[in-house]
UniProtKB/TrEMBL annotation:
PANTHER family: CELL DIVISION CYCLE 16,23,27 (PTHR12558), CELL DIVISION CYCLE PROTEIN 27 HOMOLOG (PTHR12558:SF13). This is Anaphase-promoting protein. The keyword GTP-binding does not apply. SMART domains: TPR.
Length: 228
């Protein structure tokens, strides 16, 4: 009986192997094509990264030099628009070098330039496109977006931006000032309860910050508005 079971198992194994071989033989062309497609995709990605993206990043970074210099000097118009042939401005870099690190940074610079020029809608357009995971830069850009919303009288959006900036930063250097701005906006919206919560968060969570020493007057005012 045991010998019969062994023979049956061997027969089944042979059938499985045979069927596998038949499947491979029948579909060999499809398998080869699939493998070649995978190889081609990997090769294309490598080629794009090495021969296209890297050179574009380098070229864009070179173009940024003059624009960045004008930005640092506070010459917003020249930083945005450039200085003629060979001296690209931030807007040209954004347009011609999309997807590069330089173009991403140019979005932030352009947003700041427009904010300084009092063009808050344009500032928001560029600031919202900037991407960064840095826990100082990204919250600071979000805070500036909040300032833009305030200037555009979009107070709900402003409060949300300031709160998000504080959450993104989660540190003594940036969060307290963002929370303080949020609290002031909540008061303008008539939401004194939320304003008080924010002020007390500064006092308790960020007690070492300069804002903590100054927020007592805001706490008193928010309490008084609620009849406390």
């Amino acid at each position: 009986m045991a010998e019969k079971n062994i023979k049956n198992q061997e027969k089944n194994a042979e059938e499985i192997v045979s069927k596998s071989e038949q499947f491979v033989e029948k579909n060999i062309n499809k398998i080869i094509i699939a493998v070649l497609i995978v190889i081609a995709v990997v090769a294309s990605i490598f080629a794009y990264m090495h021969f296209v993206k890297k050179p574009r990043n380098e070229k864009a970074s070179e173009k940024m030099y003059v624009a960045e210099d004008k930005f640092i000097m506070g010459n917003d118009s020249m930083a945005l628009n450039g200085m003629g042939i060979g001296n690209a401005g931030l807007l040209e870099i954004i347009d011609k070098y999309k997807g590069t690190d330089a173009a991403n940074l140019a979005e932030a610079y352009a947003g700041i330039c427009y904010f300084d020029m009092g063009k808050y809608a344009e500032a928001l357009e560029h600031l919202s496109k900037f991407k960064s995971k840095e826990n100082i830069v990204s919250p600071s850009i979000m805070r500036l977006m909040g300032d833009c919303y305030v200037q555009l009288d979009k107070l709900e959006d402003a409060a949300n931006a300031f709160m998000k900036a504080a959450q993104l930063a989660s540190n003594e250097a940036v969060s307290p000032s963002c929370l303080l701005k949020a609290g002031h906006v909540y008061e303008k919206l008539g939401n004194h309860k939320k304003a008080l919560e924010v002020y007390e968060e500064i006092k308790i969570k960020y007690y070492m910050s300069p804002e903590s020493a100054q927020v007592e007057a805001d706490i008193i005012r928010a309490k008084a508005a609620q009849g406390k």
